Each structure stands twice: as C-alpha cells, then as structure tokens.
Amino acid sequence: MSGVSLQGLVKTYGDIQVVHGIDLEVQEKEFVVLVGPSGCGKSTTLRMIAGLEEISDGDLSIDGRFVNNVAPKDRDVAMVFQNYALYPHLNVAENIAFGLRIRRESKAVIDASIKEVGEILGLTPYLGRRPADLSGGQRQRVAMGRAIVRRPKVFLFDEPLSNLDAKLRTQMRAEIKRLHNRLGVTSIYVTHDQVEAMTLADRIVVMHDGRIEQTGTPMELFLNPVNTFVAGFLGSPPMNMINARIESGDNGPIARFGELSLALVDTPTMRDAIGTDITLGIRPEFVTVSTQADTHGTIPVDVELIETLGSEALIHATLQGEPFIIRAGTVGQMDVLNGISGFSVEPNLIRVFDAKTGMALPDQVMKQ
Amino acid sequence: MTAGTSKLISRQKPTRLARITQHLKREWQLYLMLLPTVIWLLVFLYKPMYGLQIAFKDYSVFRGVAGSPWIGFEHFHILFENDQFLRALKNTVIMSAYGLLFGFPIPILLALMFNEVLNQFFKKTAQTIVYLPHFISSVIIAGIVITSFSPSAGIVNTILGWFGVDSIYFLTKPEWFRPIFIGTGIWQEAGFQSIVYLAAIAGVSPTLYESAVVDGANRWQMMWKITIPSIMTTIIIMLIIRIGNILEISFEMIILLYQPATYETADVVNTFIYRQGLQGGQYDFAAAAGLFNAVVAFILVMTANTISKRYSRTSLW
Questions:
Q1: Which of A262, A301, A327, B238 is the most buried (most CB within 10 A)?
Q2: Which stretches in chain B have pLDDT values below 50?
C-alpha cells in the first residue's frame, strides 16, 4: 500500500515552530491537496515528506515504512516544483531521463521510458529541444515527465501551476487530473489556489498557521466548513459573514442583526444556542435575489456594482454597511439583476458559527 | 495642405536624431555617470593608437610622430629576424599555455570546493586566505618568492635540506623559472578569480539541486551534472577573455623575478619591448613588437569568440 502517513509532524527553525504536529493519512492512489494561505506550512510539510527538510518531531511513513531518516532518493517519491526545476543545459529527453541516468538504468530502459513519457504527455515532438525553447505549459509537462518516468510510489507537487497564465493553468489542471486517473499514483499537491484544490482533490487539507484546520472532500469542505477560516478560504467569492445573535422567533430560532433577521434551522442545538453571538455564513451562490425588498423574509441590500462574467454575475452589495457578494445566473435574468434590492436564503443553506471561537455550531450538516 | 494630410504628417515617426536627443534628455544622468570612463578610454586607450603609426616609421623623437618618414614593414622584417624576439615570442606562448592549462582551471576548482564547504566559518576563513595575495603588491610578492627560494635561508631549500637535497639556486636556473612564475601567478590570483565563478554558482537555482536530490543524485553528481554545466557560460566567457590576454604575461612579475641567466626561458614579448623601447630607446621597433602582440591577441579573441558562439551558443558579442 503506497500511502503516506504523517503523525504529529513538527518543523522548527531555531526557536520558531512553523508546523505544529500534523496528523494526516493519505490513502493509496488518493489525490490529496494541501491548501492554505502563504506561510501556513503546506510547502514545508511537503518538503518534509520529500526529505528536503529535516523533520523536527513526529513520524513520517511512506508505504508503511518509517522514513524520517531516509534520504530523499530512497523514499521513492518524485517532486514537481513551482519553477519546473528543469536543467537548462539538457534537452527535454535528457531532462526526463536525468533520474534514470543517475540510477544507472540501462540505455534500453531509458530510451523506452522517454518514448513512453513523451507519448503520454505529448512531448514527442519536443524531445530534442532545450527548456528555453519551450512554452510554460510544455516546461511544466517536462517537469511532470521527469517525475512520472521513475514510476515513484508518491508524487509530490509544489504549486506546479503558479507560474502559468490562467488559461494554461486550467488546461494543465485537467492534464494533471487525467494523468492521476491514468497512473493511479498517490499524489500530494500543494497550492494556495482554492480553485485548484477544489477541482483536483479527492480530499482537501486546509492548513492555517502550521495546523490542519479541516480535512475532507471538496464538497464536504465547501458545504460544511468547520470554522470561519475554512468557510472564508474555500469558495470564490468567499462566504459572506454577518455578525448576528440567535434569538427566539415565532417559528423557531432566528438570527438577528440590527433591525433584520433570518430564520435558522429549527434544531435542538440552535434552540440551545439562543442568546449566543454568532457569525452567519452565507455562500454567494446560495441566495435568491429579489427585486422587492419589503417582501417577508427578504433582506434588503444596497447594490454597488454588478460584474457580469458571462453566464453568471457577481453582485457587489452592502448589507448594513458591510460588503455582501451575491453570485447569480444571468441568462434571462438581467432585468432582475439590474433591479436587485434584496435577497432571501433558505435556513438550511446558512452556516452558523460561534462568534467567539469561530467554530461551526454542531449538528449542522448540509447535504451534497 | 488639407487637415487629413497634416494628421498624416504628425503621425510620422520622429527622426533618428530627434529620438537620440529625446533619449539623452531623458537619461542624461546615466550618460553623465558614463562620461569619466569614456574620457579615460579616449585618453589612455584610443589617443595612444595615434602613436602606433611609428611601428611603420623611422621614428625620431626630434622629428615627432608626424614628421618621421614612413618605412613600411621594415621593423617587422627586423623583428622576425631577431633571435631575441623569437625567443621572447616562444616563451610568451609557452608560459601562456602553461598559465591557461594550470591557472585557468584552478579558480574554477576553488569555487567548486568553496561551494561544497558547509561550515560557514571555515569557508569564510579559507576564502579570505586565498583572496589575500591578490591585494599584495607584486613587488612584495616577488620579495616573498625570492626569499622563499633563496639558496641560503629560503624555506624551500630548508625543507629540501631535511631530505638531504643540496641547495638549488632556483631563480638562476632557466628550467625552474616557468614553474615558479606560473605557481606564483596561481597563488596570487586564483582565489580572487574564483569570485566570478562563486557568483555564477550562487546564481544557480537551488531547486535544481533539490530536484536532483529527489532524483537520487549525490554531491559529486550534482557538481558534475548541475553546477559545472550551469556555470559553463561564465567559464567560456572567462576563457575567451583569458585567450584574448594570452600574450599579456604578468610583465611586472617577470621584470622582478628574471635576470640575464634566466632570459632563455623568462624573457617574454612585453619584457623584450620594455628593454628595446624604454631601455634601448628604439621606440619604433618596440611599437612594431607591441602592435604585433595586439594583433595576435585580437585574432585570438575573435577566433575564440567565434568558435564558442558556434559550438556552445555562448559568446562575448
């Protein structure tokens, strides 16, 4: 089983601890994405797995073997770097074959591997070119070719698409996913881009300040973030946050903010939390826009700007002076969007967080 | 003129002169900073070229450069029939070849070795020690060499004495001059010259090494397969420069170390020019030798640059 196991993994530089005891089990063939803002420790964690950073404390196992003190070359991992790390003096074929040559594979094996990888990644016409003569996407493909040619147990990707433009990034994202489906190699992928995380991952690990905030499938994290950090980090645009207080309404608990209120799901937990200061989390996609603010259950907003993206639009509004973003479809809806004065939202689509701890109140499970 | 025509004219590209003037107005501070160097080049390198014509003249100090009569290539004929010049030329080529063979790779090796040293204190101390001789005057270096190789109190002969070897008067023996001269040059300059290569090594992306580590390369393989190929451009450029200066043997050091007993192996074109021109007063003859030197250097650097451009895609221009 080519899984990766991290138990209490710690990294310190002098007196400064940057990774605070990470526990994570990556299953065989799984595609796990470590995501988080800059400085959250995701790259450091990946580099510890690769063996490029010494592990200060904790245990690391790859394929069931304890590898804390094993040299990177003996961990049977391959890594793709952000800046491709291609050798400028070698051509594509030589770059791909570098690891095999270092391991003194026979010429026949090397030639066959170059041919195979060239075909898989569509690099056959470029095998004789040097990296300087390739486009960004082609370079990234060569970097991946160099990783897959060794048939490692684990692929490690360190923000491999960050240097590409938006269009190419989308293309390469799909290629990476296809490659993973085809090769089925356990992969750990680091990115700060939540779109990459959502689209690529079997499982996402959200990191913040050297700790794991939440682990789960993309939809689990999107629908049921455990805290305001995860809620704000995943999703584009991020979840809208409104400070409120739970009160008792005519038909169950409501969230009161100023003169306004929103109905909440009527659960024992929510009833127990009456009187608690909360943060309401409302995804921009989960609201229904309205042109009549005075309708019952409609929350009035002041629209400042509408960004039309084609099939959908982002409505930048303010709610009691705070920014509030709505994402809505545009097809046949432009008249409605131009006349927006408020929104409504189903109680079961609202995420409620404790205002003090930032943690989601228990027993809220949004189904996929 | 119609309105349409006037619009057409206003869209015309400004003249070259107008563009240059505009550029100078915008970037005048940069050109001001460049000015001292340009003046220096004109005064000390370009103006003296006027005097080169005396290589083709029967020059007399009293008649001046312009007033001296032309004699064509006569000085060059004499030069190539002069045994001393031919000997100096041969010595120059031999010593330059030795210098290139031994002196050129050593700074590269030093830089590679410094790059592998992990202990920063040791690395900095060692670097300081090898850089130091560069800052010592040639006269002092020559003094150290003369003292070290002295037959009576020199450290070399003292050590040889411990093994029962009789004292050797190294600096009077022609066969020892070249090794001592080349060795001294390496000791004095190798450390300082290694700075260029260290800077080139510092420019190599660390991820290339990290990628190689993950691929399974050891330090030796990384040095051969990453560091050296990555600094190859710098090595080639330094080689071209070195080849261009191949006939520019360290003139002061030879003057300080050689003596008539070692002329056989120590006399080079520059010392020959010095003796003929300044000490013998044959300025026109010395100018011919100097011009020959410069032309050969020019051809060498052009050739090296062309070869490098063709085979390694690296060139000075």
A1: A301
A2: 1-4
Look at B11 and A222; give whichever has higher pLDDT: A222
Q: How far apart are CA A215 and CA A219, in angstroms?
A: 11
Pick A103's closest partner by Cβ from B210, B216, B226.
Answer: B216
- Predicted pLDDT of residue A166: 84
Nearest to A168 by CA among A191, A135, A199, A200: A135
Q: What is the ipTM of this complex?
A: 0.82
Q: How far does the CA of residue B222 sit from the closest CA of chain A (Å)?
A: 10
How many cross-chain Cβ pairs, A to B, lie less than 8 Å apart?
A: 56
* pTM exceeds 0.90: no
CATH number, domain of B288, equals: 1.10.3720.10
Give pLDDT, residue A61.
95
Spell out which residues of chain B touch residue A51, defining contact as CB-CB under 8 Å: 213-214
pLDDT of residue B2: 47
C-alpha to C-alpha distances, B185 to B108, B138, B257, B265, B266, nearest whole angstrom: 15, 10, 12, 16, 14
CB contact under 8 A, B215 and A88: no
Q: Which domain holds residue B186?
A: 73-312
Q: What's the total number of domains in chain B?
A: 1
Domain shared by A129 and A223, yes or no: yes
Write out the residue range of the structural domain in which residue A333 sits: 233-354
Q: What is the pLDDT of residue B144?
A: 94
* Chain B residues in contact with A81 (beta carbon < 8 A): 207, 210-211
Cross-chain Cβ contact A150/B215 below 8 Å: yes
Reduced to 3 states (helix: H, G, I; strand: E, B; else coil), residue B17 is helix
B190: in domain: yes
CB contact under 8 A, A146 and B211: yes
Rounded alpha-carbon distances, angstroms, from residue B275 to B13, B181, B247, B255: 59, 20, 17, 10
Q: Are residues A39 and A72 in the same domain?
A: yes
**pLDDT, tens only, A86-128:** 999 999 999 999 999 988 899 999 999 999 989 888 889 999 9
